[in-house]
Design brief:
It is built from 11 helices and 12 strands. Helix 1 packs across helix 2, helix 1 packs across helix 3 and helix 2 packs across helix 3. The mean pLDDT is 88. It has 3 domains: 84 residues, Winged helix-like DNA-binding domain superfamily/Winged helix DNA-binding domain (Arc Repressor Mutant, subunit A); 95 residues, D-Maltodextrin-Binding Protein, domain 2 (3-Layer(aba) Sandwich), CATH 3.40.190; 97 residues, D-Maltodextrin-Binding Protein, domain 2 (3-Layer(aba) Sandwich). It is of the alpha/beta class. Helices cover 47% and strands 22% of the residues. A 5-stranded mixed beta sheet has the order 4-3-5-12-6, sandwiched between helices. A 3-stranded antiparallel beta sheet has the order 10-7-11, with helices on both faces. A two-stranded antiparallel sheet has the order 1-2.
Length: 289
């Protein structure tokens, strides 16, 4: 166990072994996973920590300074972790942390409830949930090693990631309650679409399936949080695709109305491949998928 971040662990492994390939073997990661974490580290520090050549990876001056920092942290860990782990052993359990990032509706409606049940059965598990409705942000967190697992739409999964599909989630096209008697084509033509960010195309894809996208306004409203997005629909700023489970209370309170048929969207649990998956990871994958 190390308290160093995943990026620094990747840096330290490459510094010790001299190549990304050997570092990936030591870390039980793919070479792509190690490379992505090095890139994220260098982007964060705004410096290059390695000089890359055919002979391998050689530390830059900035890399040498970072290596010294890592060595000092490891020395401190050597004095601190045995005491912490001793308390864990005394309690008979070794604490294992699992970090996940994904969109609001999936995390609240499926991921967190399933993890609660798993945590009740395996009390040594600790969870960190990062609610993020931006697909690109979740991808970046996976690349940086900031989370172990990410929830991504089926069509947006990078090739280097391992994944398993989750059961489909129903989405509705939500409009303000006062628009309930208006025709959908007229709404699409005259009102504004609301999405999470510029990369969010779920509502557009829904309209394409209905043959109505050519009527839609291109300028959209954005809100990077499901509750905020729903509040904008309730307030009459426009229309959007919302998870039906999440929108149920708003429908019952007659704050929004649903137009068209519900659409089933498939999300997947994604992670960077490892030659050997930790057992508590396997338990999580089996629970969710």
């Amino acid at each position: 166990m190390s308290l160093l971040s995943p990026q620094l662990q990747a840096f330290l492994a490459v510094a010790r072994r001299g190549t990304v390939q050997q570092a990936a073997h030591d870390l039980h990661l793919t070479q792509t996973g190690v490379t992505q974490r090095l890139k994220a580290l260098e982007h964060h520090l705004q410096v290059s920590v390695f000089e890359r050549s055919r002979r391998g990876m050689r530390l830059t001056e900035e890399g040498k300074a970072l290596l010294l920092y890592c060595q000092r942290v490891l020395e401190l860990e050597g004095a601190t972790l045995p005491m912490i782990e001793g308390h864990a052993r005394a309690s008979g359990k070794r604490v294992q942390r699992i970090t996940l990032a994904g969109p609001s509706s999936m995390m609240r409606g499926r991921i967190i409830p399933a993890c609660v049940l798993l945590g009740q059965q395996q009390t040594q598990l600790r969870f960190s949930f990062q609610i993020d409705d931006s697909v690109e942000a979740v991808k970046e967190k996976l690349r940086r090693g900031a989370v172990h697992f990410g929830i991504l739409p089926q069509g947006a999964i990078p090739a280097e990631l391992e994944h398993k599909s989750l059961s489909p989630e129903a989405y509705i096209l939500a409009v303000p309650w006062s628009w309930r008697k208006r025709g959908l084509a007229e709404i699409v033509k005259s009102e504004t679409m609301i999405d999470f960010d510029e990369q969010d195309v779920i509502t557009q894809q829904y309209l394409q399936g209905l043959g109505l996208f050519h009527l839609a306004r291109l300028e959209r409203h954005f809100a990077n949080n499901t509750d905020a997005l729903a509040a904008m629909v309730v307030g009459g700023l426009g229309y959007s695709l919302l998870a039906r489970d999440m929108a149920r209370s708003l429908l019952e309170e007659k704050l929004i109305a649903s137009k068209g048929e519900a659409s089933a969207l498939v999300f997947a649990l994604c992670w960077y491949r490892r030659p050997v998956m930790p057992s508590h990871w396997e338990d999580l994958v089996n629970r969710l998928c």
